[in-house]
Design goal:
One of its GO terms (molecular function) is metal ion binding. The protein has 255 residues and is α/β, with parallel strands linked by helices. The protein is built from eleven helices and seven strands. The protein folds into two domains: 192 residues, 3-Layer(aba) Sandwich (Rossmann fold); 49 residues, no CATH class. β5, α9 and β6 form a beta-alpha-beta unit. The chain is globular, with a radius of gyration of 19 Å. 35% of the residues are buried. The structure holds magnesium ion and zinc ion. Zinc ion binds next to α8.
Length: 255
């Protein structure tokens, strides 16, 4: 293999960089009854938005809902080995690594957790759903592709959620960088969920996916991607992991 001088690492956030799902976690901590509704509800995305609004209304009086939510996120599981691993990669002189976060969580949740973990400077770019804190202390969420703001629906056929096609977002990130004359000898994608399958299909032979085991991505790679079988449509290499300590090990010893 040719020498790798520059690489891009793309991180999904929930259950990949972080050791939990941000949306579910805040309900588990602050409103378990709503968490139950979320689990029983099939239309997860629509319901989640409704539940977010109800959660904010039901939080204790006298405290800003956004403060309660941020405090819950600050105690969300985040593996120390992941912190060590990404720090190691970021500080390494060769290859030089660019960090890109591609997440279906939202900007406020991600910023809050990165700050708590001392990783505010980690990412060169974050693409996620828009969020802001209102004057009333509520968290206002908007989808990445926002019909109310004139957002054009994506045409992905792989099954991405309406609010974001992660494959399109990765392609756009790479296109913008290439326009500036920047290319990557290798792309490493760290993901776990079924919505990470679309971007992983766009990876090249010299690229690598670090796929978390026992979650949606692994199944799609094997069933739809026919991973490891003749005629597989997965072009990149695949390494599997279950615990963040294994990601740290890969970063330090196997890349
Ligand atoms: Mg995930
Ligand atoms: Zn897609």
């Amino acid at each position: 293999m040719a020498q790798i001088k520059k690489q891009l690492i793309v991180f999904d956030f929930d259950w990949s960089l972080a050791d939990q799902d941000t949306d579910r976690w805040i309900f588990e901590v602050l409103a378990p009854d709503l968490r139950r509704e979320m689990k029983d509800e099939k239309e997860a995305i629509k319901k989640n938005k409704e539940l977010q609004a109800r959660l904010q209304q039901t939080l204790p009086a006298g405290q800003m809902p956004s403060d309660s939510i941020k405090n819950a996120l600050r105690v969300m599981p985040f593996h120390p080995a992941m912190v060590r691993g990404v720090r190691y990669l970021k500080e390494a002189e060769s290859p030089k690594t660019t960090f890109f976060c591609l997440s279906n969580s939202n900007q406020v949740f991600i910023d809050t957790i990165l700050e708590k973990q001392g990783l505010s400077d980690l990412f060169d770019e974050i693409v996620t759903n828009k969020a802001s804190v209102t004057d009333e202390g509520l968290i206002h969420l908007r989808p990445r592709i926002d019909p109310e703001a004139g957002g054009v629906p994506h045409s992905c056929q792989v099954g991405c959620n309406p609010n974001m096609c992660k494959g399109d977002e990765l392609k756009e990130f790479l296109r913008k960088r290439e326009e500036r004359g920047e290319t990557f000898d290798r792309v490493i994608y760290v993901g776990d969920g079924s919505n990470d399958y679309c971007p992983v299909l766009r990876l090249r032979a010299q690229d690598l996916v670090l796929c978390r085991r026992f979650r949606g991505l692994e199944g799609r790679l094997e069933n739809e991607g026919r991973l490891g079988q003749p005629g597989s449509i997965v072009k990149c290499s695949v390494m599997k992991w279950a615990g963040a300590w294994e990601v740290e090990e890969i970063f330090k010893q196997k890349l």
